[in-house]
Amino acid sequence: MPLPIASLSLDLDDKWAYLRSRGDAAWEARPSYLPAVVPRIADFLGERGLACTFFVVGEDADRDDGAREVERIAAAGFEVANHGEQHLPWLDKLTGDALEAEVAEAEIAITRVTGKRPIGFRAPGFSWSPELLALLVRRGYQYDASVFPTFVGPLARAYVKLSGFRAAKPQPESETPEQRFSSLSDALRTLRPHRIETAAGPIMELPVTTMPISRAPIHFTYVSFLAQKSPAAARAYWRTALRLCRLRGVGPSLLLHPLDFLGEEDEPQLAYFPGMRLPRAVKLELLSDVLAALAHNRQVVTVGQHALGRLEK
C-alpha cells in the first residue's frame, strides 16, 4: 500500500528582501546570506533524504554568488521553481507588461542557471491574482503554489499598517502597494491539490498547508516562533497539525524559509523576525524533529510531484 503524500518547499528569500520588507534602506546594496545558508540547507535536507522545491527569486539567480547557490540546489536534485524577479509581495496589484516581466525575467534567469525551465510558481507574500494564474498558463506553467488558506492574513495586514513594518520601495519613484498576506476568501479554500480554471485554461494549485479546521499557520517559521515561548508547546502544536491532516485526508505541504536555518547569532540585523530569537542549534534541533514527524509514514516529495500527482512508485 503506498504511503500518504507530503511535500516540502522553501522560499529562497534573501537578506535584502527581508530588509526591504522592514523598510531598511540597507536592502539597496543587495546584501546576501545565500552563500552561507544554502550549503547548510542542502546538506541538512540531503542528510535526511528529503525532496524539496526551492522557489527562487530571479534577481538572486542573476547575481554570480546567487547563481552559484541556485546551481548547487539544482545539482543536488531539488526542484527549482519561480518566486518572481524582484520578490514583490504585491503581484496581485500588477497587470500587463509589469506582471509578465516579474514572471518572465525570473524564469529566464532560473533557466539559464539550471538548464531547466521552471514549471511551478509561488507569488511572494501569497499575492496571487486571476490574471497571474492566466499568465502562468500562457507561459506553460503546470502548477501554482501561492494560496495560503488562513484567517491570519488580514490580521498581518492590519499589523503592518499599525506598526513600522513597512516595505521599502523597489524604485524611488514607485508607489508601494499594500501587501496581501492572503485574504479571507483564501482562508476558505481547500487544502488539497486542485485545478483552477483561468481565462487561459486550467492550472493545478497546491496550497501551503494550514491547520485543518482552524486554518492557523503551521509553516516552520510559525512553529519556531511558538518555540521561543515553549519548545514543548511548539512540538505539540506540530503533532496536532499532522494528526488533523491525517484525519482530514490532507497531504501536508510544509513551507520553509532560509531564516529557519539561521539564528540571531548569524543575522543580528534580522533578529526582529519571528523565530529569530532562537539560537541556531536549538532551531535546527526543532526543525529536525518537525521534518522527522512529517516524514514518518509519509512519502515526502516536491511540490511539483504533489501538485501534479507524479509520484515515484
UniProtKB/TrEMBL annotation:
SUPFAM superfamilies: Glycoside hydrolase/deacetylase (SSF88713). Pfam families: Polysacc_deac_1. Residues 17-151 form the NodB homology domain. One of its GO terms (molecular function) is hydrolase activity, acting on carbon-nitrogen (but not peptide) bonds. CDD domains: CE4_PuuE_HpPgdA_like_1 (cd10940). InterPro entries: Glyco_hydro/deAcase_b/a-brl, NODB_dom. This is Polysaccharide deacetylase. It comes from Botrimarina colliarenosi.
